[in-house]
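REVIEWER CHECKLIST
Item 1: Sequence provided? yes
Item 2: Single chain? yes
Item 3: Sequence as submitted:
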Amino acid sequence: MKTERWRRSIQILFFILIALIAVNHTLSESGASIPIPFLADASLHAVCPFGGVVTVFKLVTQGGFVQKIHESSLVLGIAVFAAAILLGPAFCGWICPFGTFQEFVSKFGRKLLGKKFGKLIPKKLDGILKYLRYAVLIWVVVMTAISGKLIFSDIDPYYALFQFWTGEVAIAGFIALGIVLVMSLFVERPFCRYACPYGAFLGLTNLFRFMPIHRNASTCISCSKCDKACSMGIEISNKTTIRDPRCISCLLCTSDAVCPVSNTVEMKVIPYQEIRNAK
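Item 4: Structure as written out by the authors:
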């Protein structure tokens, strides 16, 4: 379980960091004493890599950034995407504080519902809803390009979570946060599964990432523990190389976490010939 302990530690670290940045920036703007001076200019928008995605059109066409987007967002966006090409959306599974928030809430849901947790949404409906986040991604990118403003911030539950005390959060943002909060009691990472535009964007790297999750069929005992551990509802036990766009590289399905057989489910570079033979 070393992988999960490391992941949980990193998740908590980044959650606390983002919370401190949010509080620090609010105090800085209000003129109050600043607890962390070197973070005085940092804001949620400045440390959000998705801002680097939505500002690309304006940057290319007009040479500027979308309102509220900083250069740091573009730099972070490029860095996260480069890492995703190698490891997949590890940002989602290890760093994103809103993903961490959903996981924490789901722990209470598991205790309340027991075996019923995760079974609220039928598989067929889940198979349809998983495409919704791509519609959100297209809408956000197009509308941001047209308006030149950060459209998604008004309904972004992540922004609402870390800015709820500031008076800057729109009603729609609170509603979105409430929906995610309630749904997280019934299903793991509902926002990540069905609505996150950045998760949809990074998820595409699973189709060509250099180090995907791989299941060794010759040593697999078909216990399905990897399926149960997957927070995104991917059925890993019937696949050889996981190229599902929903994978967030959390590594909860690996032999180091839940798989009882060593070196059966792991993240590694898959030789082209092996991929070809698997097909």
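Item 5: Key structural point noted by reviewer: The chain has 14 helices and three strands.
Item 6: Recommendation: ____
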